[in-house]
Structure formats: C-alpha cells, structure tokens
Inverse folding.
C-alpha cells in the first residue's frame, strides 16, 4: 500500500500545467457514439492515453473511461463538448487523487528461463502477480494495479525473455460519487434538474476516506 | 375446433381495435407520412439508385409535398439552409447514397457551424450489402459524424417513425443543427404495420436547454446596473431563439448600445437607435474600438468567433463579461465569462430586463456616434457615393436600400461582396440576412436564395454574389428555370477573387497568386436558362437596372461591373486586436 501514495504524485509539479485526467462518460449504448466521442479529441489533436468502455451500474447505460494528459481548461472544454452529444448523459473529469483506478496486465515468459533464473515465488510476492497459466513452454502472469506497478514488472522480467505483454485500459471509480441512479431519474424527467447545470464537477467534499 | 374459432374471433377483435392506429405500408410511405406530420411542405432533393423507393412513394404525395429537383446535392442542402433560415422551419433534403450523400457534406458543415436546423435523408445500399463496397456505398454515417448534430442509420423500417421524430426534435430544439438519417434500401421497401406517428419531445440523454438559474441572472443584472460603459454583442442566438422582441425590450429599457455579428444582423432593425453596427474583422469602427473600452460586455447568443474577436489576448481585457447562451459548451470556450447565463435567451432576457435599471448612457452612446462619424467621413461616404468612374459595391447596396427600403431578404455568397452587403444593407425585419457565416462557403448564395424564396415567398429575395462564388454553383440556374423561384441574382463582378486579392495586396506584397479569375457571359448564361438579365458597367444605368431587376416578375440576373481593386475597410488585420482596426 505504501506505493499508492507515491504513485498519486500529489506534490509533483505540473509540466505545462498538464496532468493526467480521467474522463468518465455515462452514455446510451449506441453504435457510432464511440466515433463521435473520439472525434472530439482528434479534432483538437489530443491523444487518448487509454480508453475503456463497459457497462455501468445501470442496465443499458454504458460508461467510458478516457485518460488524457492535458490542462484543466482544455479538459473542461472537452467534457462540455462530449456532454453535448445527444446520447451522452453525463461527463465527469477527475485528477488521479480523486479516483480509484486499476489496469490489468498480462506477461508471457518462458517457463524454463524463469525457473532457472528467478524464483517464481519472489515475483508473485513482490509484484502481487498471479500465475494464470503455467505450461512447460511458458507461464502467464497477471498483475492488476497502476501503470507504474505493471511497468515495474516489465522491468523485472526484461532480463528473462518477456515473450508477450499486454495491458488493459484504465478502469476508474470516482471516490466521491454516489453512483448514477439518482441522476438518471433527473434525466428521465422532462425538466432538467438544478444539479445538471454544474455538469463537470463533483464537489470535492471531505467524505473521502483516503488511503 | 372450438379453440381455433376462439382464436379467429380474438384476432378479428384485435384488428378492429388497432386498425384506427395502424398504418400498413412501406418504410418509404411511413417516412413521407412522418414528414407531413412534422409540417414539412417543401423538400429539396435529387434522386438516385439507393433512394428510389422513397422517390417512388413521393410520386403519390405530389399534392402534399413539394419536391424541388435541384441540380446538385450541394445546391439542395444550401437551398434547405436558405429555406430554414428565412422561414424558421426545419429544412429537408433528400439525396441518394454514395456521391449523393458526400455532396451534402459542405452544406452539413455549414449548417452545423451556423446552427441551422436540417433533416437530411440519404438512401443507402441494402443492409445485407453494407460493408461489401457495393455500388454507391459510402460510410455516410462516419463521414458526416463531425458535421451533424446527430445522425442515425436505419436498417429496419420499424425504426423509421421514431427516428424521424427524434431527428426533427433534435434538429430544431436547443441549439439547432443538421441531422442526417441514412436509410438502407431494404428498409425503404419493407412493408410493415406502423403505429400512429408520435412527435418526440423528450430524449433522456439530451438536454436541449439548461435550466435557467436565477442567481446568475441576478449577478448579471448587478454587473449591468453598475456599469458605466456597458456594451451588448448579439448573434444569431436571438434569431434562433425567436427572441427578437424580448431582446428589443431589454435594450430599450437598459439603453445599452448593441452591435451584431453578421449572423445576428437584422434581429433588430438597422435603424434602431441603439443599433451601433457590425462587429468583427470588417465591422464598424466604433463597435470594434470600444470593445476594448467597455466596462461590461453582455454577449447574447454569440460565440466569440475569431473573426469577431481578433487577437484574443488583447480582447476586452478591461471588461467584465456576461455571456448568455443556450449551449453550455460555448460559455468560457473562447472568452472567459465573469457571469455565464445558461439558457434560452427567450427565457433569460425577460428575467434580465426585469432586473436591470432603466438607463440612457448618453455619453457612452456619443462615443459610438463620434467613431461612426469618422467612419462615415473616411470610409462610408467614399464607398456609397464614390467620386471616381468605377462603381463600388457599396453604391450598389445603397441603391438597393433606396429601392427596397430594407424589406428585402438579402442572401449573400462569401467574400468582399458579403462584407459590403452585411455592412451596408438595411434590414427592417428579422431572418432577412442569410449568409454563410461560420464556414464561409463560396457557392452558398445562389442555392440558398432559391431556398429562401420558398421559405419567404412573399418577400423580394436578392442573391448578392461575386463572380468567383457564382461560378461554384451556377448549375442551380436550372432549378430556377424549372421551378420558377423568383430570385433576383445580383453579381458584383470585379474580375478577381476579391477578398483573397485584398489580402495579397495588403499582406503579401501584391503577389496576386491565382486570384485573377475570368468569367463567362453571365447574362448569356442566364438567357440559356431562359432567365432574363443584363449587364451594367456605367453608373448612369445602375439605378434603372436595379429597378428592372427588382420589379421583374420572375427571376432576373443583373451583373454589375465594379472596381477591380477596391478593398473592404475598415479591417482588423489578422493577429491584431479589435482596437487596432484600420480605416484604410
């Protein structure tokens, strides 16, 4: 757990005022919407670092997690442009200290190599890895965590012939979110609610239990 | 046997009950029925393979739906834009798949940036052929995604009524925009029993307008009431919100001078005492200079386009900004607002009017008058009453004003003539200035004027077009010939691509790179389409020729030869602040 504080990088200086933002989009599940959202970034020549779409806590409403490295003003404008899309219900954007997030990484290494030169046990303990498959020819490890953590295992495995590596997009939960059920009721009503006006902020209260 | 009988009886009952509501027919028919339900009377379109079932159905709807066969799909969509802008209704376009649909893209982009409500129906290849590179197959949905407010591909006729209802609702509600529905041929042909058409008035993921919050209105009013030099900038939002009267009430009570973007022109009459003129690159002197002197700027339904603001970091830095807009994404987009009033200006303006003090601002208005006098002396008089032999675009506009008295609908193309028309044309009525503002689409003028004539049939519609722009969509003379739209076509011919030439003269050491454009005999061209016309190259004949054009019963083409190297001034050079506007 000690690594988490380090990884949140709270006191790190911002380069050009940019930092990592996770944009959370609640939207109807409709063909073509991903393209509509992607265009908002590419039109402004902004690179998407990671993108994940998944079901949300509510049936038939999907949730996009988009990670970009940009300044606050830019992200705010992007969020408003995304929220403007007809099928989008709501957009939040958060810095890393406001969210809990995970990524999953898989590593394929030669079993012989790893058995000879490093103890599997040590890897499992040190990196919180689990062995998904162990075969004569190769072993697949899985690690869930932040990018820095999964990167660390790449480094560790580099000398031992890393055959294949893949990392998933980020999935994130907003710490200070009460979920979307209440919001959805407002959306289903004809009159927009007050809350919808402050569209890009979740009030950063003291409710969060920080690790 | 008994059970079988029971079932038959049951079925009969069901049929009798639902026959009132159900309509049995093809997807094409239900589409046309839906258009009628939405109040559509006029469609601009062009048939082709993948939209043939819809055109086949249209054959039987000739008494209810007027179809204008344009000569190119781009002409069709610009005509629909002109129709929508003149009438305030949704413009409707039909086009076939592939090239038919891709020819709509320029018009979609234009309608998107100028917030024009359109519903475009494109045919598409059979659903089972999608993705096979079939004949005239294009990925229209993905091509048009960045330039539509919403788009949708229909592959099953059962979706048509609901999707069409949504399309109209989305196109015209909130900040309007173009919507495209792509319908595969099988869905057009598919026979179904359809329920009664129900208009759409709510989509749960779509907020057409944000809820008005009184505290922001109060904050705005407080700022306005303490202001010594308040200044209103208004755009097309006032017209789109149909809030012209509410806007007038607001300025009349507050006594604040108001300047317009070219999209907002005509929302209040040119002659209104508080109308201080045009903003932006070729706008009036006072409004531009005094933007950097005002203490409170109230922006209403405008989006701080770069052609309005000039250099942003030197734009109105001294002023507090109040921004009223229906689209939350516009607030803080280019200019940071001190008070953002989100909402439909039809609702927010009366609330604001209630809270602002009655005022006169005489000294402040006098400043606008001073600058205006300088502009009159140095720019306007020489343009409207030139002393040389060469005719100016400005004097043509002055004559139009004198003949029409500000009651004509003026449609322009893009370039020098557009700026001159916007600067000098007088308007008494809203929805009278139709121009391609955000996209600057050359070729917009002629087809948009055709559409405007259908949208405002009782008005004189004058298309003012340059010699360059006219040559981009001259084929629509064929549409006028066939359907008789009485559009007055005024070509201001300077034998140059004038605006580009002006820039080359001012900023590129007169290196006139490919702006020297030659033209056909426009009058003869019109004659070949059985449209009357004449060419004027002497001032002595100008007035009579304009009167002939305007009083002519049908369409008429008048070509006026104007000075070759006249420039449009004032001008805010690119990269300069609005207060660095040049008078020459």
């Amino acid at each position: 757990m000690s690594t988490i504080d380090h990884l949140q990088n709270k006191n790190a200086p911002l380069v050009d005022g940019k930092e990592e933002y996770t944009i959370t989009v609640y939207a109807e599940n409709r063909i073509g919407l991903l393209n509509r959202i992607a265009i908002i970034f590419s039109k402004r020549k902004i690179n998407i670092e990671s993108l994940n779409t998944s079901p949300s806590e509510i049936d038939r409403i999907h949730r996009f997690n988009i990670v970009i490295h940009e300044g606050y003003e830019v992200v705010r404008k992007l969020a408003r442009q995304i929220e403007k899309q007809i099928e989008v219900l709501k957009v939040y954007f958060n810095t890393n200290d406001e969210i809990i997030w995970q990524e999953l990484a898989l590593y394929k290494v030669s079993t012989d190599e790893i058995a000879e030169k490093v103890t599997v046990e040590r890897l499992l303990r040190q990196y919180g890895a689990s062995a998904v498959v162990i075969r004569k020819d190769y072993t697949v490890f899985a690690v869930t965590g932040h990018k820095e953590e999964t990167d660390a295992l790449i480094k560790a495995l580099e000398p031992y012939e890393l055959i294949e590596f893949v990392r998933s997009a980020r999935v994130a939960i907003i710490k200070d979110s009460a979920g979307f059920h209440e919001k959805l009721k407002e959306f289903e009503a004809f009159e927009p609610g007050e809350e919808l006006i402050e569209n890009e902020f979740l009030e950063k209260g003291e409710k969060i239990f920080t690790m | 046997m008994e059970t079988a009988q029971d079932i038959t009886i049951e079925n009969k009952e069901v049929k009798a009950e639902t026959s009132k509501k159900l309509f049995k027919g093809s997807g094409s028919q239900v589409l046309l029925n839906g258009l009628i339900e939405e109040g559509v009377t006029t469609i601009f379109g062009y048939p082709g393979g993948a939209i043939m079932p819809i055109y086949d159905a249209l054959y039987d709807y000739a008494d209810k739906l007027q179809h204008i066969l344009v000569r190119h799909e781009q002409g069709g969509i610009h005509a629909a834009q002109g129709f929508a802008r003149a009438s305030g209704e949704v413009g409707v376009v039909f086009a076939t798949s592939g090239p038919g649909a891709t020819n709509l893209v320029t018009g979609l982009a234009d309608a998107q940036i100028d917030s024009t409500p359109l519903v475009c129906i494109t045919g598409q290849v059979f659903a089972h052929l999608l993705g096979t590179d079939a004949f005239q197959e294009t990925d229209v949905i993905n091509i048009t995604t960045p330039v539509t407010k919403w788009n949708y591909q229909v592959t099953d006729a059962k979706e048509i009524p609901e999707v069409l209802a949504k399309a109209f609702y989305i196109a015209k509600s909130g900040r309007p925009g173009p919507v495209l529905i792509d319908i595969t041929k099988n869905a057009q042909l598919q026979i179904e029993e359809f329920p009664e058409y129900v208009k759409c008035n709510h989509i749960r993921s779509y907020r057409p307008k944000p809820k008005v919050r009184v505290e922001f209105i109060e904050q705005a009013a407080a700022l306005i009431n303490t202001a010594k030099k308040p200044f209103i900038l208004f755009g097309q939002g006032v017209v789109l919100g149909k809030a012209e009267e509410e806007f007038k009430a607001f300025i009349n009570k507050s006594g604040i001078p108001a300047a317009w973007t070219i999209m907002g022109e005509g929302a209040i009459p040119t002659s209104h005492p508080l109308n201080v003129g045009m903003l932006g690159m070729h706008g009036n002197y006072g409004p531009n200079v005094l933007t950097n002197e005002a203490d409170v700027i109230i922006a209403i339904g405008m989006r701080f386009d770069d052609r309005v603001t000039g250099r942003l970091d030197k734009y109105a830095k001294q002023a507090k900004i109040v921004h009223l807009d229906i689209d939350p994404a516009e607030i803080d987009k280019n200019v940071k607002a001190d008070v953002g009033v989100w909402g439909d200006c039809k609702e927010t303006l009366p609330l604001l009017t209630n809270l602002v003090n009655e005022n006169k601002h005489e000294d402040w208005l006098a400043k606008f008058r001073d600058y205006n006098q300088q502009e009159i002396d140095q720019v306007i008089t020489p343009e409207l009453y030139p002393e040389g032999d060469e005719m100016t675009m400005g004097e043509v506009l002055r004559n139009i004003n004198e003949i029409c008295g500000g009651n004509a609908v003026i449609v322009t193309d893009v370039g020098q003539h557009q700026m001159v028309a916007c600067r000098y044309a007088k308007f008494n009525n809203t929805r009278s200035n139709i121009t391609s503002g955000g996209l600057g689409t050359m070729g917009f003028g002629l087809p948009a004027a055709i559409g405007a004539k259908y949208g405002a049939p009782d008005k004189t519609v004058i298309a003012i077009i340059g010699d360059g722009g006219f040559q981009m969509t001259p084929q629509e003379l064929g549409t006028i010939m066939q359907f008789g739209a009485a559009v007055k076509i005024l070509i201001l011919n300077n034998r140059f691509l004038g605006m580009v030439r002006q820039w080359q003269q001012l900023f590129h050491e007169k290196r006139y790179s490919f702006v020297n454009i030659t033209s056909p005999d426009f009058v003869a061209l019109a004659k070949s389409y059985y449209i009357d016309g004449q060419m004027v190259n002497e001032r002595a004949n100008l007035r009579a020729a304009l009167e002939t054009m305007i009083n002519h019963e049908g369409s008429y083409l008048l070509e006026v030869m104007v000075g070759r190297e006249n420039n449009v001034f004032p001008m805010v050079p690119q990269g300069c602040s609005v207060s660095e506007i040049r008078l020459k």
Notes: Chain A has a mean pLDDT of 83. The radius of gyration of chain A is 20 Å.
